[in-house]
Amino acid sequence: MKKGFSGLFIIIVVAVLFNSCRKDPSLPEEKTPYSVTYINPRSIFPEKYGMPALPADSHLTEEGVYLGRMLFYDPVLSIDSTVSCAGCHAQQNAFSDPKPYSTGVFGLTTNRNAQPLFNLAYSRVFFWDGRQKTLRELALEPIQAHNEMAMTLPYLRKRLASIPRYRDAFNKAFGSEPDVFNMTLALEQFLLTIVSKDSRFTQMWPGNFNILTQEEKTGLQLFNVLVDEDPVTGALRGGADCFHCHGSVFAQANNPNFGGIANNGLDAVITDKGFGGITGKSTDIGTFKTPSLLNVGLTAPYMHDGRFATLDEVIDHYSDQIKFSSPNLNPQIKVHGPKQRLLTTQEKAALKAFLLTMTDTVFTNNPAYKNPFK
Amino acid sequence: MKNLLTATLIVGFAFGFQSCKKEQKPTDEAPKVLKGLTLNILPTWEGSTMVTGKMQYSKPDGEVLQLRTWGMILAKLALVKSDNSLVMLGDGYQWVDVASGRLSFNYPDVPVGTYKGIQFQLGPDSAANHGDPTLWPANHPLNGNLTGLHWGWAGGYVFQAFDGEFKDSASATVTKGFSFHTAGNVFNQLFFMPFNFELAGTPKTAVLEFKADEFFKNPIELHLKDKSVSHSTGNDEKTLMSKLIGNASDAFSVKSVN
Question: What are the backbone angles phi and psi of residue B158, rounded to the nearest 5°?
Answer without folding.
Answer: -90, 115
